[in-house]
Write a structure and sequence with these properties.
The protein is an alpha/beta fold and 320 residues long. Helix content is 55%, strand content 10%.
Amino acid sequence: MSEIIDKLYLGVDVASHKLDLATGHNVTLSGLPKQVLNHPTAIKRWLRTLPAKVHLVCEATGPYHKALWQACWQRGVTVSCVNPGQVRDFAKSRRLFAKTDRLDARLLADFAAALTPAPTHVPDPTRAQLLELNTRRSQLVAFRAQELTRQQQPSLGKSATASLRRSLNWLTREIDQLEAAAADLIDQTPILAYQRDLLCQVEGVSLKTAAALLATIPELGTVSRQRSASLAGLAPFVHQSGQFKGQVHIHGGRLPVRQALYMPALSAMRCNPVLKPLAQRLTARGKPFHVVITAVMRKLLCHLNAKLQQHPCPPQIPPK
């Protein structure tokens, strides 16, 4: 391997079976393979050949990047997982429209050299497990909603109706088991149990909602209210130029957080002493429902974030 400057970014384009590797333009690293199998053993073997100060950069690709992440964390190799949308926007800004795995790897290295992304930290195993349970529950809830829609078809025969009934019963049992597993996991983790109980003190926040928030936005209670709203995709973006004033929109963020907040916000619009007047004021000003519910969701999330900040963990509960 050649000697490296202060930091060398190495782009890794992740696919289901392989990793394409590349350094940025005008940067060379001798002995670097073009591809590595996306398998824990092959990745660990390759990481042993990397010199110090190499910073790996990849995109979030669902489950396919997990083997790379885990191997990097085990060996102490710095790795950043970046937003694919940001990388594509970076490519467009440089008028790079060609797309291959090799070019994507080089693009990731150039993106990192220009914007220096922060390292992605090792996730807490308990919170990672809680997120998996919540994700699987959300998948089954969505599928159950589809099955309920199919059940409303007036022309279904007896066999199809019976099949739908069996499917719905099975889905309900599976969802109940996932919710019970998530509740048990929180009960067994003092910090999560403490935070869940704090969240549930807010009117409209149920045990299911608290579990979903703990899984999907673990930063809650450690960031500013602006940052919490941004993470959830509830921060307003102003569209204005000169004398033109366009509509304010939300953009990006974590859809599961907004899904978890929707029903509590709907309930808060009817009975919460703080959020109900907010909803009434916006409605009286002629704001459409989606604007009102978004504002209530943002206000509710900021309140939950502040509540966790104002009541840190007691000394007998070590924070993780």
